Amino acid sequence: MSHLGGSPLNTGAALDYVTENVFKSNAGSRAEEGVPQFLILLTTGKSDDDVRRPSANMKSTGVVPLAIGARNADISELQAISYTPELSFAVSDYNQLATAHQQLLTRVNQMTKKEIERISHTPGVVEGEIGR
């Protein structure tokens, strides 16, 4: 069976790519200098590939992913991608992205310096530990 309409949505492959190619010092990452590494992912549908393994791998490197889904995005997939389920947001259409943006900013701004240091400098932190 072939995919109909548009390109396949391979969010897992995209997560692997940014983990291996973007969040690296030779690509400009300053994680080694203590700068927190955040990824904001915007998607509009359910991925055609696995997102759990790539997102777990990303989290284990100290990157903190936050996921925003619009239209046909799968909320359970957004929650799996995000560092914690509370860092995932879903909107029914693009006109609501400003609301999701504000919610995301509010949540990130509420993070304490200690939380950010713990999650961004402790590879392998267990999901759900933020805010404890």
Instruction: Write down the overall mean pLDDT.
Output: 83
- Tell me the Rg in angstroms: 15 Å
- Helix percent reads 25-40%
Distance between the termini: 46 Å
Count, helices: 5
Strand order of the largest sheet: 1-2-3
In total, the number of strands is: 3
Unreliable residue runs: 123-132
Largest sheet: 3 strands, parallel
Structural class: alpha/beta
| Structural shape | globular
**Secondary-structure element string:** HEHEHEHH
Percent strand equals 5-15%
Structure keywords:
single chain; 132 residues; alpha/beta; three-stranded parallel sheet; 5 helices; 13% strand; globular; disordered C terminus
Question: How do the helices and strands line up, and which of them pair or pack?
Answer:
Blueprint: H1 11-21, E1 38-43, H2 52-60, E2 64-70, H3 75-81, E3 88-91, H4 97-110, H5 113-121
Helix pairs in contact: 1-2
Structure description:
With 132 residues, the chain is of the alpha/beta class. It has five helices and three strands, in the order αβαβαβαα. The chain has helices at residues 11-21, 52-60, 75-81, 97-110, 113-121; strands spanning 38-43, 64-70, 88-91. It has a three-stranded parallel sheet, with helices on both faces. α1 packs parallel to α2 (52-60). Mean pLDDT is 83; it is low at 123-132.
Give a concise summary.
Helices cover 38% and strands 13% of the residues.
